[in-house]
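Last lecture ended with a question: if I hand you only a sequence, what can you say about the shape of the protein? Today we answer it with a concrete record. The protein is RNA polymerase sigma factor. Below, first the input exactly as provided, then the predicted structure, then a couple of comments.
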Amino acid sequence: MELLIKKAQNGDKEAFISIINEHLQMMYKVAKTRLSSEEDIGDAIQETILSAYKSICVLKNTSYFKTWLIKILINKCNDIILKNKKVIYVEDYYESIENEDLLEAKVSIEENIVFNETLNSLDESYKTVIVLYYVSGFNTREISEILKEKEGTIKSRLSRARQKLKEIYLKSYNEENRNFKVGGSK
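The predicted structure:
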């Protein structure tokens, strides 16, 4: 990956395209936590790619490319949020699977629906940290750099988000068991 980044920094367009293609799915997932419409998500990703292409030569340490790219993306998402001035929600999973293989989607669709419904119940700051940490694989230091917040704040937010997710799942589990006992066999 670092060799491709170096090539891209030296003007190799194909290397840059390869790098972006490798990070595109992660970019989509992060943008999806911040923006509600597919058009806005597409705009944010497109603007991020253009901005990254124009300024990749400024990147000093190639090992920080992923963090650098997501930082640009979040800033572009924030610009769109400010421009639109609307409330942001994570949409249903169905829209995000339209481009995936339907057979793969059928296997995990129920789990993803439950995850997205649970994710919807969290504040935006918790959603962002959960997605960056668990879905995109960033560590707390990288997330603190991306969000321009102290690492301790990110760790606390991540801990609170985990606790809230646990409470939501336990509440859901208890309700299912109560319905099972009251309604008889299902």
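Comments.
1. The CA atoms of residues 125 and 157 lie 8 Å apart.
2. The mean pLDDT is 79.
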